Q: What sequence folds into this?
């Protein structure tokens, strides 16, 4: 059986490798090269070194977007995971209608980002109208509006993952801890959390990457207003590439920096949380 797998593996892997090369690897390598060029189209690209990167890091809009995205990601990751875990704990108790609640909490994740943005802009502007304001009147409104939207969309999804982890905990462990005199808080810290570390790893990874890469919700909800103060990294890259003549190379350089930042943070998080899984 192993010999057959080794013999035919290249044949079955070939279509996937070809698709991966065409759809990801080749465009990625070309993107790296274009980030070092000045161009309007791929055919007229002229190599100019790291000038695009220098322009990117001297662009106030990019630095503001980086800071705004970082703040948003920290707040969103913390709030989403805490609230999702609390809901998961509640919905793994012997309560009536838990399946209905799980479905209701999960449903927002099925709605597209643009639609979510339009839904929440109407809700938030409706609330703010009582104080004669809109979501774009103040950057703080935009920030917390995005946090609320992100929580509403992802809490149900993360909740399902936490529920799966909690349900896989052996009842014998919890019973043994209770017999040893551990209270509810001690059982939570020393039994439940260590046992669901794989779920925590997945949820942290998903919330980190989704928060950093947020585009369509940001575009629909605030579009960066007022004055690009609520513009996140993905939207800033889009506006640079398509909205500023002669800045396509700078936009591409920003995209490369964006990729490096997201990859570094995601890999670091995976390493740290998986090391906890090994220990447990």
A:
């Amino acid at each position: 059986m192993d010999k057959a797998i080794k013999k035919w593996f290249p044949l079955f892997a070939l279509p996937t490798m070809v698709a991966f090369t065409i759809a990801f690897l080749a465009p990625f390598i070309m993107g790296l090269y274009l980030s070092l060029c000045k161009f309007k189209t791929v055919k007229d690209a002229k190599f100019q070194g790291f000038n695009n990167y220098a322009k990117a890091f001297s662009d106030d809009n990019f630095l503001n977007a980086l800071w705004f995205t970082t703040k948003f990601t920290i707040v969103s990751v913390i709030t989403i995971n805490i609230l999702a875990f609390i809901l998961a704990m509640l919905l793994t108790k012997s309560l009536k209608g838990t399946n209905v609640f799980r479905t209701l909490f999960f449903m927002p994740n099925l709605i597209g980002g643009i639609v979510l943005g339009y839904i929440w802009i109407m809700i938030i502007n409706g609330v703010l109208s009582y104080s004669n304001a809109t979501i774009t009147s103040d950057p703080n409104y935009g920030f917390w509006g995005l946090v609320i939207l992100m929580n509403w969309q992802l809490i149900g999804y993360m909740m399902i993952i936490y529920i799966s982890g909690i349900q896989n905990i052996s009842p014998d462990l919890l019973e043994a801890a209770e017999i040893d005199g551990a209270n509810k808080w001690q059982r939570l810290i020393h039994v439940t959390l260590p046992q669901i570390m794989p779920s925590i790893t997945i949820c942290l990874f998903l919330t980190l990457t989704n928060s950093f890469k947020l585009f369509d919700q940001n575009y629909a909800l605030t579009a960066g207003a007022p004055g690009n103060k609520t513009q996140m990294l993905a939207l800033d890259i889009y506006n640079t590439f398509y909205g500023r003549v002669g800045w396509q190379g700078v936009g591409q350089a920003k995209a490369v920096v964006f990729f490096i930042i997201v990859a570094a943070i995601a890999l670091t998080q995976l390493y740290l949380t998986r090391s906890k899984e090994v220990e447990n």
Remarks:
- The radius of gyration is 23 Å.
